[in-house]
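Dear Dr. V.,

Thank you for agreeing to look over these. As mentioned in my earlier message, I'm a first-year student in the group and I'm still getting used to reading structure tokens, so any feedback on how I've presented them would be very welcome. I ran two proteins. I've put each sequence directly above its structure. The first is here:
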Amino acid sequence: MQILLATVLATLGAAAAVPYQEYILAPPSRIIRPTSVYLSRGSLSSEHALLDGQVSSGRSLTLDKFNSSVTYDFGKNVGGWINFNTTSSSGSVGFTFAESSIWVSSEWCDATLAAGVTLDTPLVFNITGAGQYSPPLEKERGAFRYITVINLGEDPLSINDLWVHFAAMPHWEEDALRSYTGWFHSNDEKLNRVWYAGAYTNQLVTIDPTRGNAIVQIPAGLNLSVPVSARDSLAAFTFTPDPDWTLNTTITKGTSVLVDGGKRDRLVWSGDMAISLPSIAVTTYDLISAQNALDSLFNLQYTSGQFPYAGFPTNLGHVTSFTYHLYALIGIGTVYQWSGDRAYVAGKWARWKTGMEWGVGQIDATGLANVSAADALDWARQGMGGHNIAANALLFRTLTVGAELARTQGDSAIGERWTRLAARIQAAAIPLLWQPDVGLFRDNETTTLAPQDGNAWAVKSGLVTDPTQIAQISEALQARWGAYGAPAPEAPDAVSPFISGFELETHFTANRTAAALALIRSMWADFMLGDPRMTNSTFIEGYSTSGALHYDASYPAPADPRLSLVHGWSTGPTISLTTYVGGIQLLSPAGATWAIVPQIGDLADVDAGFSTSLGRFSSKWSTNGTVFHLEISTPKGTTGSVGVPLPGNFKSAMLSGMNREGEVVRVDACGRYWINGVDGGDHEFVVVGLSH
């Protein structure tokens, strides 16, 4: 996988630089300084001396008295180790961290512990002389926008420099953090910001594997130096986290790993990668970090064939999940789809088949999987179990992925068997769980609750193929939107950006582009980026339908300091904007075959692209309501199809391009004209509307 990325970067080096660098939020180096003063308290002076661009002024921040403090704003979410220079010879200074402005405090940080009602204590340095101070490695803070500096001594304290060593993307060189392989730009600045915020979110959740969630109290006999592959044999245990927060657990092998969150949940979860992995593929192409994450799950596979709910150390409790088991299998297919690396699949194939057979073993006489209570854990939803529509849509998708992988491994017999089982699920699920009067699937046959996840996955998985039914699902999901986005009724009082990312794909698949763009603008741009409580740069893991910053209906406080404001599973718009609005779709691994099918909506122009191991793919289009102009570029040696949308509501148009000068064409039911058998290379098409 490292070779694949090197190939892509070499290709980019030979071509023009990736455009639209001004939108990239990743820093140009690993040294980051604050950009503004957010708040100050008590007696102090020269608080602006530590801002970016002013450190060379020769002035120092001076905190005159005990408990005087200043809060600095980095303008975006960052993560790493705080460093500072002091000219004082003695004293004590504390630092607190917060992702959201509501947790800015001179007494506490927001919380990194997953359980309980807790706040983290300040990071304290006792000054023993003038000079530079840095924390131990385990005191990395994975994500924060605000840092508060507090004088904890009796005498004045002076600091003449303060910076963060940016820790994300540890396997990339310091000057390469902005070396994206993909891009997106449109005439809508909200969409542009969302795409790049998604890219940056995934960078912040790509971490050093030795900086995973803390294990503070370790049971006797647990040797953290044993290979990751051996840890699943250890007995289950319970530990009590210490409020003295640390990041000190090695969660997998390698030099980088894709995890769930930046501040909290620095663990491997397979479900997140259903969103974060393809979003990474079209932005940084950092497949190796996802591969390391998936490797850790496959190394922890139980003898039954099932994968753990999450990676080390969560696996030590032998906690399992039907859906997250399937997400792990799908993840291998996703890596293959974007890399074309058959050897990678071959190395996983025996364990992949064992895992698939465990999933197949949950199918009962109805033809559907019957999810047991022991495997009912999921993303945060309730009611998983029985003949659940989300679980069965995921199983349907996993079986179809398995059939495709089986062909690459010369295992056609098992692939054909999985195809037949998928067809049985499709034949059983729709008549049992579809509610025609509602236009949505019910969660299972014992309820009328229509879940967001199951309905979105019914479309995404290909379980539903009828365009009318897909449109019904899209319309019914949109009808439930509230002021803060798309609700997930299967999780009480929750808006889930994770599941809403799949809902986005439903609207695009239904060719309801306006609905999809409206959801991105209102939920991701206006709220998740624009709300003053957010980071202005990364996407939150979830929140209340009221807009309150809590994601757990049982949490006793009106806001939850544990909430992560940088979560890779919330980056769905990044892949959707590239795939549907840019229209670039890989039909076979690495894009050996492809389709370019732009969706216009209310946009006037779009420029999108990315690279795989085969080369660069791009789609650049513009329209004025009468004329649609499209330029595409795909690698030589590939082939594909182009679905040219007719502008406005025109039913016929004059097409120019690929030796079709002035040809009159008519649209299909989705308003497109298809050009098949297009060889890789550079092509230009112009469509002029003729009649409505």
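The second protein is here, in the same arrangement:
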Amino acid sequence: MQYLRNIKSLILSDSKVSEKIMYVKSAKTTMLNYNEVHNGTGDKLLFNPNSVNYILRYYFPYWSAEKKIKEVIEFCETTGTKYVMFVCGYQHMGWNMIPLDVARLETEKFIYARKELEKHDIKLGLDMGVTYGHHQNRWDHRDKFPDIKYWKTDIKGHADYSSPCPEDINLKKHVKQVYQIYAHCEPEYIYINDDLRFDVSDNMWGCFCTKHITLFSELTGRQWNCEELKNALYGDHNIRKQWIQMLGKCVVEYARDLTVAIHGINPKIRMGMMVPTVHLLPIFGHHLTNVLDALDGNVKPIVRPCIGPYQDSNRREIAGGIIYMELVKHFLTNKNVEYTPEIETAPFTRLSKSMTVVRFHIAQAILNGMTNPAIAPASYVGDPVDIEPEYIKNLPVDKLFYDSLCKMGFSTPGNKKGIQLVYDFNSAKESKAKIKSPHDLAWSSFVTAKILGSLGICYTLDESPVKLITGKLFSAISKKRIEDILKKGVILDAEAAEALIDLGYSSDIGINIGKEPEYWMAEECVDAEFNGIYKDTYIPLKAIKDSIYKLLPFENAKVISQIVDADRQRVCSGIVLYQNSRGGRIAILPYSISADDGDNRHLLCYQRRYMFRKIIEWMNADVLPVFVEEPTDFLVQCWDNGQVLTVCLTNLSYDSFSEVKVIFTHKEKLHFDEAVYVSDNGTLNKLQISLIQSNEGDGHICKIKHEFSAFRPLIMRIPYV
């Protein structure tokens, strides 16, 4: 802990940083008294809405509580942190369920810690690290938990004795007891970690233990075994729908039962919903709102979305991971909840995630209106809270930057611009397709966001005249909504196109689908308008996971690429464009974009970047308000409230640049002379932007001078005239 004292002294010796520390410490006296602010439901807010509020998310070891509480308090005072979230059950070296004796020991020490924290005006919440769903401990648990009768069982009937079945009666009793014990700590809230879920993999879809098989047999009125049930789930959509509904009911009942159990001890404790990776939720009936409603007891629950990935070893995934948080905010728009986005760094320290990416993730949370980042600086085994000293250095220094973003206000829905990604929680349940794995029903959201973000194409979940639709969405939405989509612009992957054909809309998308080609090797760019300088080049298709769909275009459709074999001979059509009688402009890809697409080289290339941009412009040129023409590999995000255009440009490469060439497609006149950006110290500084070319009615080409290093976003605001 001596390091904390040294770094605190070092920070306070710097006059500029000292001012920032003073700003942090005095924030509560200059801001609105948030204890008097309500969230529209009669509940007082937990967090100050006028600033960014750091939350220290940390495992507090009961075996060295007196020593660790001093470390925690000093960390909080040095970084301006007024909120602490203690993880329960030392999950990285404990049991997969919290033993009752551990719960009692931790509760005793948490009560002690809460009283010490209160002396420093620091508030305590709890994060129930493990209840039943995490597999941190792979060893046999039967001796430790002899009352558990049913254990999670895979599709082949193999039981995992490290993880109990959620429907086990004794497990339910045990989990309720654990939560009630911790409720005596009197925390502000208790998060149910992302245990409110079922495992989904090629061999696991919920649980196939005898308990679950019996429950499902009673529900459906017929007897099942593992093999028969697997075949039915993969091939019979009616059985699959009932299975998903049963799993969802279990998840919701857990949420409701734990809420009742905790509020039986202390009705003032708020329940927290930690949201796992959203794209898998529809496969087991978790719709966000159904679980959140079950947690809504006497007081409004709070929500902790994850921001993936937890490590930055694969830089290409960093942009894609933002979508999880964006999906949560989108689907809970009308719920008026407080968010504590998860800045997870497991397995921790800068060996796992750099401080640059931590800063990027906190900034992204704020841009999504989530201003209470729950930061995990150390592992969940009681490591020193300052084991990674860079948090102590960076959090105070970055506070003014974060608070400045907070005051700009990004929580208004409907302002984010770009091509619209569309998802529906009923898509897995309503799909009639035969599948090979439960993952076939997952959303492609992460993969799609990764692709578009890397190509510099801004996307949104808000309503937009151009959409990108993949997978099984059309099975879940109404005829009216389908036909409204087909009146505008839409890019379809092959699976979505096939679903429309099955529903009788082939005349609206300009293709039929023939027999799968026997072989293919590459995609040739054949159209000058939509391929530009990349015409006559080839895109390798070796990474295609499943198959190429043989698109059979109508006579008046336009083919802009073609599939070729190893001898460069034509196999079938590639991407097809079509304008239908409704006025809609349709683009169909000859392959699917699925959640399991780990290698996207056929979509992450310069040819595709040019092609997608031209397709979107053909559909509606206003959909991409900003495009970084050069250099490449910039994430582009745009918000437009009708008065000011706000743009976030993030360099996703390790190469640094001092200027970028940007195309603004707005026909309205922008006041470039009044453009500003958020500096590192939170001030709004004049942006060095110069107009290179202005085309009447076609937008503007500008050059921006700024230091663009990896994952250090430039956030700028340009007013309209």
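From my reading of the second output: The chain has three domains: 2-408, 416-464+466-619, 626-719. Residues 2-41 have pLDDT under 50 and may be disordered. Does that match how you would interpret it?

Kind regards,
E.
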